[in-house]
Amino acid sequence: MFDNFTLAQLQQLWWLIVSVIGALFVFLTFVQGGQSLLSSVARNDLEKSLVINSLGRKWELTFTTLVLFGGALFAAFPLFYATSFGGAYWIWIAILFTFVLQAVSFEFRKKPGNLLGARTYELFLFLNGTIGILLIGIVLATFFSGSSFQLDDYNQVLWQHPMLGLETAFSFFNVSFGIFLVLLARTLGALYLLNNIDFRLQLVKDMEKRLRKAVATNLIGAIPFLLYFMFNLATVEGYAVKPESGEIFMESGKYLQNLLAIPGVLAMLAAGLLFILLGAAVARRPSGKSGIWFSGLGSILVALSLFLTAGFNNTAFYPSSFDLNSSLTIYNASSSRYTLTAMSYIALAVPLVLAYIAYFWRKMDREKLSTGEVSDFTAKEIY
Question: What is the number of H-type helices and E-type strands within the chain?
């Protein structure tokens, strides 16, 4: 089957696969969003334990998906992996450090006799939920704004700024998308907690109200940053590719042209934004619990549309603002036809993995997390 694909078709297929994984990761950042809400929606130890144990059921999915995203990029587009992870070194180290803090915090927060105390680990979770997601958003925004690198004749990366990636945090375009992702994650986190926790007892009713308020305030806060990002995306010069020569050149309104040239992607973006709003509207109802599924689907569609806009329609998905012709496209950064073909057959197993995850997700969430569960100190899985 895949043996009959041309190299260009395989490259496009794998950019689509990578984009789907990246979009799923954006949805799963509800874990980080929930962590960042700890200090605002949880006012006592019981409420904090409910939030952390609810998120603790899913935190490994986010981390695993991030690793899978990096692994898929490494296998399908190794030149991007080498350029970004090897060049923008310090920003990736900072991101990974916050995820290490997350793993340590879930493991040791409730361990008896831990030296740092529960509050320190709660601070670590907050840092992962805010700084970690902010930096990821900044990195993703460079898919449109560009980075300061040059590739030599041997494709070795020469990063042109001494801060090795951290300089991208000084672009408001990049930061605006990072802040949008943080606030979107907080919105998704509040929606997830509303769906996952049993609020029937009166002593947690106030937390339910705070979560419903958090959905609205964070989504409203996200809108100006999204509008700023989308306006600039539609009006700035983009990094276009001449298909016959591979030469990179600047083209006015390139990313808007991409959306108009691929109506399905534009429809995906519009539908995604509507679904996010619909999820928030569901949460406004006193009994509304299912908003996470609407907003979750919406976040996947929005993220997927942005990834496809960055990589398709003869566009450099990892542009160099220092040397245009060092910019990376899905065509000059990919693995060989043989490698992409072999990987495509292996990828046929992905639906089985997703079905496995969905099955156990449903099994874990069959019963809502109750105050009794987090108060049972004999339980093995208490975070």
Answer: 17, 4
